[in-house]
Specification:
The protein is mainly α and 259 residues long. It folds into 2 domains: 1-26, no CATH class; 31-75 and 120-244. The protein is 75% helix and 0% strand. The chain has 8 helices and no strands. The chain has helices at residues 3-22, 32-49, 52-67, 74-91, 104-114, 119-167, 173-227, 232-239.
Length: 259
């Protein structure tokens, strides 16, 4: 569970609801017509940008990665690969089958080694799977970004509808209030959907994309070097290029401080 995403969203809605309560109650901020305009319009225009199959997979993957995705640092991945290379040198390919590996991408690469596949096949297969994973993740990000763009736009459309209805009924004071409520609440709904839900999730998926790209590229290079029985020290040295400088401190057993 990604507590940062969940906690931030709960805090955002909590502050909004608290402000509503201080302003007289939550009930006055509810309006079915406004919700239909914003939510219905945003979903409809987003559906136009994707296939139905693409919408389902993007929504499921995006929600999973944003709320339940587990981040594994590149440093932790490098350390695990180094340990696997030591196992390979001591016990050979079959010894790798006894090692418990949590990351499914790394696990698949190690299984290829245990099964005796050539390094060229391993690299091509893992690179293809990495590219497919990143494409699906980018599609999820694009889905939430589309909702981020559409929700405020339909909030503005609802505002215009409410203003037109209000101006068209100036002779009837009883209709001015509901029309003005539509005008204001559609803007509110659009802003909340975009800024409290969709944009943060889209940004989180963008960050996940960069992390996954780095980690899976590191895994591919590491697995191929394990397959070629490269020494653990050389693997660690070559894969250090994937790490930011702060993560390299102590990598070779030294304790120098970051400048």
């Amino acid at each position: 569970m990604d507590l940062a995403t969940l906690g931030g969203m709960i805090a955002g809605f909590g502050l909004i609801i608290a402000a509503m309560l201080l302003g007289g109650g939550v009930g006055q901020f509810g309006d079915t017509q406004s919700a239909l305009i914003v939510v219905g319009g945003a979903v409809a225009t987003t559906l136009m940008r994707f296939s139905l199959k693409g919408v389902g997979s993007a929504l499921m993957l995006g929600t999973k990665m944003a709320f339940t995705g587990k981040d594994i640092s590149a440093r932790a991945m490098l350390d695990e690969i180094t340990e696997l290379s030591e196992t390979m040198r001591k016990n050979g390919p079959l010894g790798l089958e006894e090692v418990q590996i949590d990351d499914p991408f790394l696990k698949k690469g190690i299984q290829y080694i245990a099964d005796g596949y050539e390094d060229t096949f391993i690299r091509d297969s893992l690179e293809r799977e990495r590219d497919q994973n990143l494409t699906r993740l980018a599609e999820g990000q694009r889905f939430y970004k589309a909702l981020t763009d559409s929700a405020p736009a339909f909030g503005m459309i609802g505002t215009l509808i409410g203003l037109v209805a209000m101006l068209g009924n100036m002779e009837d004071p009883s209709k001015i209030g509901p029309s003005m409520a539509i005008a204001l609440l559609t803007t509110l709904y659009g802003a909340v959907i975009a800024n409290v839900i969709c944009q943060p999730v889209a940004d989180k998926l963008d960050a996940k994309f960069l992390i996954e790209e780095t980690n899976q590229s590191l895994v591919i290079d590491g697995v191929v070097q394990i397959r070629n029985n490269t020494s653990p020290d050389l693997i660690k040295e070559s894969l250090a290029a994937y790490l930011p400088y702060a993560m390299r401190i102590g990598l070779n057993g030294d304790e120098e401080e970051a400048a």
